[in-house]
Amino acid sequence: MKRLRIAILALAILCLALPASAVTRTLTLDFCPVAGQCDTEWTEGNCALMAVTSVAGDCEPGNCYFAEFDNGVLYGLFLTCRLTIDLRNLEGIQSIEVDLQEGWATGCTRAFLYAGAAQIDADYSAGMGVDMLTLSAGGSLPTQLAVSGHECAVWEIRIIGEDLTPAAGESWTAVKSLY
Global pTM? Predict the structure, then answer.
């Protein structure tokens, strides 16, 4: 009986010591009802997305062009603009991953994570071709993600957190992932 108690106690301690698995919310960008219409909001996975004119700090400021992109294998958005994603409806974000294909120049596709007006993190494409940008919330509560590019394709955006919790009154819908 004493061994059973010790075994149960050891199992309980082991369960407490194991890290919680991460939850991932995926924006597949596979349906944009407003393709080509800058400054027009659409929603995916309860996140508001909008293509806006690229700004200083982006590779090619002053542009706003985007379209749906389908190469027969992957589907996403072709950008020559800044894509903004409103994250205020989601708490518990730890990191964000952006799958893309750089088509203009190394470092031209950029991702920025903000908490209000303050930039939390940024990442840039490492070379031509397929890449993944990774941003860390670093303990902050992100409110917006911006991805800017000049002739790049964005395939998918993954929002990762230990406990992604929709803010009060919000809920997530199911989304399709390519992986």
Answer: 0.78
